[in-house]
Design goal:
Blueprint lengths: L4 H19 L7 H16 L25 H22 L15 H4 L1 H18 L4 H4 L6 H11 L2 H11 L9 E7 L6 E7 L15 E7 L6 H4 L3 H8 L5 H14 L8
Antiparallel strand pairs: 1-2, 1-3
Helix pairs in contact: 1-2, 3-5, 7-8
């Protein structure tokens, strides 16, 4: 979640407009009337944020930028339609409530009910997903940090072994139907774990995995993420996806999680 400058600007206009209209009102208006009008406008500015402002973050690259590994039509539909639906539904579910970053809703999502679990999870997961990818020519120039490389080697043996185990976890028989596959930092902050979750669940949610864990890399294996190009060939989609992983961003995620013992904040 990031503050929305346009909303603050609009609020300031409300305040100024109220002040101006008050001062130019009928000369018979008392000074108390003027102050009341200004105070009312100020209350609008000072009021706590209310829900309804979750949004689909713009991609940091074009819809066609991940070609040929993820096709343009899939990216456009996935971002503009599927993600937008999750955002619309979580906004509806939290209407009238104080606004909090979407990350803050994850821990108790199962207890909060299907709207937060499915739509809130869908928003967080997708916002996380977009930002860990980059065009292939840029992605190929990124690499794991020393910190991340050490954890990969400690946890899996090597990068190649991690990829092999990740692809096995992402196979249709491991995550049956719709879901996600994650590389997470464990609670102790000293090891990486591979986790598959159904639907829009993620390891930040209490009760989804054996313990709450902190994702640093995640792959959407819902059919809407790949079907137009790969049809029933999910393993091909998964193996090709490595070509667009931004390891600089994954390294940044890893450092954030270990330094803060918390999930990675997302845009939107």
């Amino acid at each position: 979640y990031f503050p929305k400058p346009k909303m603050k600007f609009a609020a300031a206009i409300v305040l100024l407009s109220a002040s101006a209209s008050a001062w130019t009102a009928d000369k018979a208006s008392s000074r108390r009337d003027v102050l009341n009008k200004v105070a009312g406008a100020a209350a609008v500015v000072a009021a706590p944020g209310v829900a309804g402002a979750y949004s689909v973050p713009d991609l940091q690259y074009g819809f066609d930028a991940l070609e040929p590994f993820i096709d343009t039509p899939t990216m456009k539909i996935h971002h503009d339609k599927h993600h937008a639906t999750y955002v619309a539904n979580i906004n509806k579910a939290t209407e009238g409530k104080d606004e909090v970053p979407i990350l803050d809703l994850m821990a108790d999502a199962l207890e909060a009910g299907p709207a937060v679990r499915n739509s809130g999870g869908g928003h967080y997961n997708h916002a996380f997903f977009w930002d860990e990818m980059a065009p292939p020519d840029k992605a190929s120039k990124t690499k794991p940090s020393a910190q991340l490389e050490e954890l990969i080697n400690k946890s899996f043996g090597s990068m190649d072994e991690m990829k092999e185990k990740f692809e096995a976890q992402a196979a249709p028989g491991a995550v049956f139907g719709s879901g996600w596959v994650w590389v997470c930092v464990n609670q102790a902050g000293d090891k990486l774990e591979l986790v598959g979750t159904p639907n829009q669940d993620n390891p930040l949610m209490k009760g989804v995995t054996k313990e709450v864990m902190f994702p640093i890399l995640g792959l959407d294996v819902w059919e809407h993420a790949y079907y137009l190009k790969y049809q029933n060939r999910r393993p091909e989609y998964v193996s090709n996806w490595w070509n667009v992983v931004n390891w600089d961003k994954v390294s940044e995620n890893c450092k954030y999680v270990i330094d803060n013992h918390a999930g990675v904040p997302v845009r939107g």
